[in-house]
Amino acid sequence: MAGLIATLSSLDDILASLRAELVQLSSAGSSESATALPRDSATSTSRKAPDYASLEESLDIARAKRLVAAREKAIKSVKSSLKARQTISSEHTAVGGEGC
Fold first, then answer.
1. Is residue 100 part of a domain?
2. Contact 12, 73 (CB under 8 A)
3. pTM beyond 0.85, yes or no
4. Domain span at 90
5. Which residues contact residue 25 at a Cβ distance below 8 angstroms, ignoring those fewer than 6 apart?
6. Which of 3, 23, 64, 96 could form a disulfide with 41 if both were Cys (CB 3.0 to 4.6 A apart)?
7. What angle do CA 50, 48, 68 make, to 5 degrees?
8. pLDDT tens string for the chain (100 positions)?
């Protein structure tokens, strides 16, 4: 069970850094949101770290495995969003910023 909790904590850290990177990339792509987004992103990215004490006490391995799978899917989703945003940014730069 301790291994699953450690995995969850690690996945939470990875997910938080990917989300921060996505927010940063999104704010860099738009001059309007660049001024308003840092204030908003500070509140959305400073999420409270989950407390897995109750999960550890319950020894609910099935639930822990579901949470690991959910974090892995969330990481995959954010990575896809990052890739799409990077593609849009590179196309926007290649075109010269016109029409976007």
1. no
2. no
3. no
4. 2-94
5. 82, 85, 86, 89
6. 23
7. 30
8. 999 999 999 999 999 999 999 998 888 766 444 444 444 444 455 667 788 889 888 999 999 999 999 999 999 999 999 999 888 877 766 666 555 5
Tokens linked to 68:
């690991």
Tell me the C-alpha distance between 61 and 2, whole Å.
Answer: 10
Cα 66 to chain centroid distance, Å, stands at: 18
Residue 51 CB: number of other CB atoms within 10 A?
8
As a whole number of angstroms, the distance between CA 20 and CA 15 comes to 9
CB 83 within 8 A of CB 22: no
Tally of structural domains, the chain = 1
